[in-house]
Amino acid sequence: MTEDAPLSLHVPEPAVRPGGTPDFSSVRIPKAGSVARPAVDADPESIRDLAYSIIRVLNRDGEAVGPWAGLLNDSELLDGLRHMMTLRAFDARMLMAQRQGKTSFYMQHMGEEAVSCAFRKALAPGDMNFPTYRQAGLLIADGYPLVDMMNQIYSNERDPLKGRQMPVLYSSRKNGFFSVSGNLATQYIQAVGWAMASAIKNDTRIAAGWIGDGSTAESDFHAALVFASTYKAPVVLNIVNNQWAISTFQGIARGGSGTFAARGLGFGIPALRVDGNDYLAVYAVARWATERARRNLGPTLIEHVTYRVGAHSTSDDPAAYRPKAESDAWPLGDPVIRLKKHLIVRGAWSEDRHRQAEAEILDTVIAAQKEAEQHGTLHAGGQPSVRDMFEGVYAQMPQHLRRQRHEVGV
Amino acid sequence: MPRRTMIEAIRDAMDVMMARDANVVVFGEDVGYFGGVFRATQGLQAKYGQSRCFDAPINESGIIGTAIGMAAYGLRPCVEIQFADYMYPGYDQIVSEAARLRYRSNGDFTCPLVVRMPTGGGISGGQTHSQSPEALFTHVAGLKTVVPSSPRDAKGLLIAAIEDPDPVIFLEPKRLYNGPFDGHYDRPVTPWSKHELAEVPDGHYTIQLGKAAIRREGTALTVLAYGTMVHVAMAAADETGVDAEVIDLRTLVPLDLETIAVSVRKTGRCVIVHEATLTSGFGAELSALVQETCFYHLEAPIKRVTGWDTPYPHAQEWDYFPGPARLGRALLETMEQ
């Protein structure tokens, strides 16, 4: 007989559940400008602390401060604001369209707009993102037509993907946006492979992988870090920690580790945490990491600390698993409001101009929506052809598919 | 014409393609410096450099996942999974990613990728070095699945696979690597150097994917086989005296249904043989297709001779393996009906 006490299973729980008072007191938020900016060729061992801090540029007064500030001019910042506002307006219209039955499914970015919009601006033509379903800012910030995004969401006759793929799982090689599969973490390792290919060919292109906090638990996350580390692949590996994986709080994936970024340290990969609601900070960190990749110094792991304000998708209700007011309590604020405030402080923007811009952007989005809807929505108007269902499985259609298509009579 | 073992023919195919196309890269576990546990990539790193032939971490999902990224970039990766039995951690990458990339992106991205895997038993490999998982690939839309049975086919099919614009699963019957297997484990094996199908042309040639080969013409019965089982079928036909037509499918998807149908309509009888387990095996698909296309020509029920529905055993390997005796009985039974 053992004298040991019986064992018990530890299952982590978020600090608060519905009905409770939101509490982010355990999230340590360093002051803006307080984290050092090392040289990009710094020894990864010497910058381990960056995996446990949060790089921030915008302070409470809307000023850009510290060593990571000063990279973007007024015009670039105004572009960034417009991209984030466009993404937000786009999301609002498409959520409504989903509720109206014009599409089956939608996923919004509310609160996370800075991550993809700012990161895109650190990339060059020819670079490739391997995004998840919540990085449409990569497309919008690169000028991809809103109407084409909507055509894909509606699976209409102009859908660039011919009705074969779920809404929001876009693809655009031209815009450095790899086809989103809808599986989780599988594409993280593909980003590493794409980057390895660029190195094999002695090209100058780099890749960026994307994953959510929850999906870091997948084996492919580990696979990606091993390969990136072993071959010093020119890749930036992004973790978007928006605190929630559908209804599962980030502690279930994180376990006993201090931060998601710290996962990189065991692989010798420099790992940075950044304020994901701070457009300037995301851009600065992205620039640091992309420069490392481009100088053949190897991969960088970035944890974007943010908060998913909306539901995971149109298929879940966050009120069932977290306090309703939690997003208001999120200590890193709203990325649009923070950049707007900064631009006002810089003297480059005003409340009036912001209101005017909101109206203009909404008009642009509505005009795109009207154009898209002329070509159909999921169940009405122009549809992709049934013939398209059989095309593109292979470069050349094999006999058995020909027979099946013939059976359908298309 | 030089005679080569299957391993030598496979190595030659990669060598030819690496010389012709700088986008062909080869990697996998133990594949680089050492040249692979079966020596299929021996000498390639020395010849083409470390960036085109290299060792990978032991992570099949990582190997196939990085290869998909490389293929999307524009390379033509030909990766080795050390044993088909080790494929499962990479299966998600094959099914959810490689197979669907062209389709879901409407051709914006494609995946010209070859995944080579030693398959099948007969080498005392037990459960984890003997499996024949071909049905797990033939069931997936967007993949092509190839199983060669001779050195000449292996080289021509592998070159065709590397040049193919879509992902190809290339299953190499490891029992055939170093000598043809005449069906009997307890008799001396004829070396490839004495086998006609070991005559492998030098340089570049292809064998079209989707074309079967008739290995033995006959009028009484059609045997559908691939890989190791082609040799078992030849032995069974010779030993029973049944005038069997032996069709080597070579490619399972796309399948040469035309050659199969012409043969079965002629013979009126069909026996299907594979080493993989019976239930939901590729033989079930073949049986259904033969029934659908040749029903009014059939004079006997279609019979399947396969591995049993057990894990691949170690000590009982040859009781599991559908050898010439079992297949021979099936041929005779089918002739009696």
Topology:
The complex is a heterodimer of chains A (410) and B (337).
Chain A lengths: L73 H26 L13 H8 L7 E3 L6 H4 L5 H9 L31 H15 L6 E6 L6 H13 L3 E7 L2 E2 L2 E2 L1 H4 L16 E5 L3 H16 L5 E6 L20 H4 L5 H11 L5 H24 L11 H5 L8 H10 L2
Parallel strand pairs in A: 1-2, 2-3, 3-7, 6-7
Antiparallel strand pairs in A: 4-5
Helix pairs in contact in A: 1-2, 1-10, 1-11, 2-8, 4-11, 5-6
Chain B lengths: L5 H15 L3 E5 L15 H5 L4 E3 L4 H14 L2 E5 L7 H11 L2 H4 L9 E6 L14 H5 L5 E3 L4 H13 L4 E6 L39 E4 L4 E5 L2 H13 L3 E5 L2 E3 L3 H11 L2 E8 L4 H13 L8 E5 L9 H4 L3 H13 L1
Parallel strand pairs in B: 1-2, 1-3, 3-4, 4-6, 5-6, 8-9, 8-11, 11-12
Antiparallel strand pairs in B: 5-10, 7-9
Helix pairs in contact in B: 1-7, 3-4, 8-12, 9-10
Largest pleated sheet of chain A: 5 strands, parallel
CATH architecture of the largest domain in chain A: 3-Layer(aba) Sandwich
The end-to-end span of chain A amounts to 73 Å
Strand content of chain A: 5-15%
Instruction: Tell me the series of helices and strands of chain A, N- to C-terminal.
Output: HHEHHHEHEEEHEHEHHHHH
Kindly report the average pLDDT value of chain B: 97
CATH superfamily of the largest domain in chain B: Thiamin diphosphate (ThDP)-binding fold, Pyr/PP domains
Number of strands of chain A: 7
Strands side by side in the biggest sheet of chain B:
2-1-3-4-6-5-10
Oligomerization state? heterodimer
Give the chain pair forming the largest contact, with residue counts: A-B, 46 and 46 residues
Shape of chain B: globular
Give me the number of helical elements of chain B. 12
